[in-house]
């Protein structure tokens, strides 16, 4: 049987061996060698993109060709229809009730996105999915081919 707790590190063990007097003197300002903790620094969130499904890189590490492909993909995703989840009054059992990506039930008012194959997902879930793989997670239908063919017929 496994243990879900992390294994003890050297920091954890040093805390166990620390004497009561050391802990009592910590923070009372009597130790001139002890520095105050560093000020809180907000982390700048750098977007991570997936030039291929198995790779993840920061935006600053992408080649120009990869940046163009990702921009095109974002443009295609933005052209997919979106809406708001409304289960309706009939409560039909055929109505899709769960996003298969996050496996959470749809709630009235959730922003959703429709794929050309008519599957629906939470907008955040499917947008992230489509940045990695341009296929429907349910039926594996290529989304870009359906989108491009719909543009050609219009």
From TrEMBL:
<feature type="region of interest" description="Disordered">
    <location>
        <begin position="1"/>
        <end position="43"/>
    </location>
</feature>
<keyword id="KW-0862">Zinc</keyword>
<dbReference type="GO" id="GO:0005769">
    <property type="term" value="C:early endosome"/>
</dbReference>
<keyword id="KW-0539">Nucleus</keyword>
<dbReference type="GO" id="GO:0000151">
    <property type="term" value="C:ubiquitin ligase complex"/>
</dbReference>
<dbReference type="InterPro" id="IPR042981">
    <property type="entry name" value="RNF11_RING-H2"/>
</dbReference>
<keyword id="KW-0597">Phosphoprotein</keyword>
<dbReference type="InterPro" id="IPR052804">
    <property type="entry name" value="UEC_component"/>
</dbReference>
<dbReference type="GO" id="GO:0061630">
    <property type="term" value="F:ubiquitin protein ligase activity"/>
</dbReference>
<keyword id="KW-0967">Endosome</keyword>
<comment type="subunit">
    <text>Interacts (when phosphorylated) with 14-3-3. Interacts with the E3 ubiquitin-ligases NEDD4, ITCH, SMURF2 and WWP1. Also interacts with the E2 ubiquitin-conjugating enzymes UBE2D1 and UBE2N, but neither with CDC34, nor with UBE2L3. Interacts with ZNF350, EPS15 and STAMBP. After TNF stimulation, interacts with TAX1BP1, TNFAIP3 and RIPK1; these interactions are transient and they are lost after 1 hour of stimulation with TNF. Interacts with GGA1.</text>
</comment>
<dbReference type="InterPro" id="IPR013083">
    <property type="entry name" value="Znf_RING/FYVE/PHD"/>
</dbReference>
<protein>
    <recommendedName>
        <fullName>RING finger protein 11</fullName>
    </recommendedName>
</protein>
<keyword id="KW-0479">Metal-binding</keyword>
<feature type="compositionally biased region" description="Polar residues">
    <location>
        <begin position="1"/>
        <end position="12"/>
    </location>
</feature>
<keyword id="KW-0564">Palmitate</keyword>
<dbReference type="GO" id="GO:0008270">
    <property type="term" value="F:zinc ion binding"/>
</dbReference>
<keyword id="KW-0449">Lipoprotein</keyword>
<dbReference type="GO" id="GO:0055037">
    <property type="term" value="C:recycling endosome"/>
</dbReference>
<keyword id="KW-0863">Zinc-finger</keyword>
<feature type="domain" description="RING-type">
    <location>
        <begin position="99"/>
        <end position="139"/>
    </location>
</feature>
<keyword id="KW-0963">Cytoplasm</keyword>
<comment type="function">
    <text>Essential component of a ubiquitin-editing protein complex, comprising also TNFAIP3, ITCH and TAX1BP1, that ensures the transient nature of inflammatory signaling pathways. Promotes the association of TNFAIP3 to RIPK1 after TNF stimulation. TNFAIP3 deubiquitinates 'Lys-63' polyubiquitin chains on RIPK1 and catalyzes the formation of 'Lys-48'-polyubiquitin chains. This leads to RIPK1 proteasomal degradation and consequently termination of the TNF- or LPS-mediated activation of NF-kappa-B.</text>
</comment>
<keyword id="KW-0833">Ubl conjugation pathway</keyword>
<keyword id="KW-0519">Myristate</keyword>
<dbReference type="InterPro" id="IPR001841">
    <property type="entry name" value="Znf_RING"/>
</dbReference>
<dbReference type="GO" id="GO:0006511">
    <property type="term" value="P:ubiquitin-dependent protein catabolic process"/>
</dbReference>
<dbReference type="Pfam" id="PF13639">
    <property type="entry name" value="zf-RING_2"/>
</dbReference>
<dbReference type="GO" id="GO:0005634">
    <property type="term" value="C:nucleus"/>
</dbReference>
<keyword id="KW-0832">Ubl conjugation</keyword>
């Amino acid at each position: 049987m496994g243990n879900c707790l992390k294994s003890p590190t050297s920091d954890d063990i040093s805390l166990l061996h620390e004497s009561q007097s050391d802990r009592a003197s910590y923070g009372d300002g009597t130790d001139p060698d002890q520095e105050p903790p560093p000020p809180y620094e907000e982390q700048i969130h750098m977007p991570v993109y997936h030039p291929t499904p198995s790779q993840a890189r920061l935006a600053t590490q992408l080649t120009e060709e990869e940046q163009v492909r990702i921009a095109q993909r974002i443009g295609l995703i933005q052209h997919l229809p979106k809406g708001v989840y409304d289960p309706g009054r009939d409560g039909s059992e055929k109505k899709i009730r769960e996003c298969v990506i996050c496996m959470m039930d749809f709630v009235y008012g959730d922003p959703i996105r429709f794929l050309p194959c008519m599957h629906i997902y939470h907008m955040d879930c499917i947008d992230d999915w489509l940045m990695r793989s341009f296929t429907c997670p349910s039926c594996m239908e290529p989304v870009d081919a359906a989108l491009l063919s719909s543009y050609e017929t219009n």
